[in-house]
Amino acid sequence: MAASAQPLDFGILLALGYQNFVRDLRAFLAEQGFDDLGRSDGFVFRELGTRPMTVSDLAARLEVTKQAAAQIIDDMRRRGYVTRTPDPDDRRAQRLELTARGKSALAAARRFHQRYERRLAREHGASAVGALRGVLSAMATEADETPDPRLRALYL
Asked: Do 20 and 58 form a contact (C-beta atoms < 8 A)?
């Protein structure tokens, strides 16, 4: 059997599907005026979309060093997505919050996610998309049904 006739490995299909999803998401966000987003911005948007937090809190949630989180935040501040203000509970800490632009980018990304899933349901059937969602949810969840900590930032 020729190599081209063999089906793609499951992991490759997952990776290719994700790459296409991200490409479409980035194109949609660029059309909405968010053409300057970085690779980590979505994780930060989701975390700060739930509540303001310190750099230390954000670093812990993203499982990165405080220095790495600070670099991401500084870049996002420069692009107008995040603000830093003194933390009212700890004078040494800075409180991070999404700006109006950051909240708009998060809202646009959420709209895209919903539209994408609805489009898949139209093209492949709601039951197929529901089954896919179930399989992917199970894959992302450990045996004790706790989301993998590396993916915590994706859950709201």
From this structure: no
The DSSP output letter for 63 is T
- If you average pLDDT over residues 23-28, what whole number do you get? 96
pTM of the model: 0.82
Q: What is the torsional sign of CA 140, 156, 30, 60?
A: negative
pLDDT in tens, 33-77: 999 999 889 999 999 999 999 999 999 998 899 999 999 999 999
Residue 11, SS3 per DSSP: helix
Distance from C-alpha of 9 to C-alpha of 32, rounded to nearest angstrom: 35
In this structure, what is the dihedral angle of CA atoms 60, 74, 49, 54, given to the nearest 10 degrees?
A: 40
Q: What is the DSSP string of 99-113?
A: -HHHHHHHHHHHHHH
